[in-house]
UniProtKB/TrEMBL annotation:
Organism whose genome encodes this protein: Perca fluviatilis
GO CC annotations, alphabetized: membrane
RNA-binding as UniProt keyword: no
Keywords: Developmental protein, Disulfide bond, EGF-like domain, Glycoprotein, Membrane, Repeat, Signal, Transmembrane, Transmembrane helix
Signal peptide: 1-20
Protein name as annotated: DSL domain-containing protein
Length: 210
């Protein structure tokens, strides 16, 4: 009886409306171009911007970035500064779809006006369609343009207490006293005290409401 009561309470807790939650990260590893980035060689600065969109057969660079957007800080346009720049983080609060359109742009930061308003500041643009599953491992990629080479890596992972293929399942606060949530490879939970069945029951009921 107590076991059935526990299952009921856990399923009820999981019936709360919960948004999916995760982060897409992209790291610029290197960028080389044959063209001049800035008019002057000294104090030349650059930044990279990414746009995540729903899958498109013909990818448009025009907004909106339906899945989110982000950029690096303005950095010096040299190999060391670019390779050591922090990853671009794009948080999301929807079920991760797996397939997406990705646009990566390099802009010079020479103009005193708003950088991206002036198309003369655009150094390069990559538009591609990719498929990426939830996971901590980084995927490596390289793009060869007519005059440029861009190497980058990216991954997508769930926020704390979210799990599943699309970060759409949630380990509710009401059950966290039972112990921490540990994820197996592939994003599936391994829970303490034999609670896996109860959690999956609640997640199943929640999924039927969405």
């Amino acid at each position: 009886m107590a076991h059935l009561h526990l299952r009921y309470l856990l399923a009820l807790a999981l019936l709360h409306v919960v948004l999916s939650s995760g982060v897409f990260e992209l790291k610029i590893n290197s960028f080389h171009t044959a063209q001049r980035i800035c008019r002057r060689h000294r104090d030349c600065h650059i930044f990279f911007r990414i746009c995540l969109k729903h899958p498109e057969d013909v990818i448009s660079a025009e907004p909106p970035c339906t899945f989110g957007t982000g950029n690096t800080n303005v950095i010096r346009a040299d190999h060391t500064s670019i390779s050591s720049s922090a990853p671009i983080r794009v948080p999301f609060h929807f079920k991760w779809p797996g397939t997406f359109s990705l646009i990566i742009e390099a802009w010079n930061a020479e103009s005193p006006t708003e950088y991206t308003d002036n198309q003369n500041n655009l150094v390069s643009r990559l538009a591609t369609r990719r498929r990426l599953a939830i996971g901590e491992d980084w995927s490596q990629d390289v793009h060869f343009g007519e005059q440029s080479e861009l190497r980058y890596s990216y991954h997508v992972f769930c926020d704390e207490y979210y799990f599943g293929d699309g970060c759409a399942e949630y380990w509710m606060a009401e059950r966290r006293h039972a112990g921490p949530l540990h994820l197996r490879r592939g994003g599936q939970p391994h829970l303490p005290g034999g609670l896996e069945g109860e959690l999956l029951l609640g997640a199943h009921l929640l999924g039927r409401l969405q």
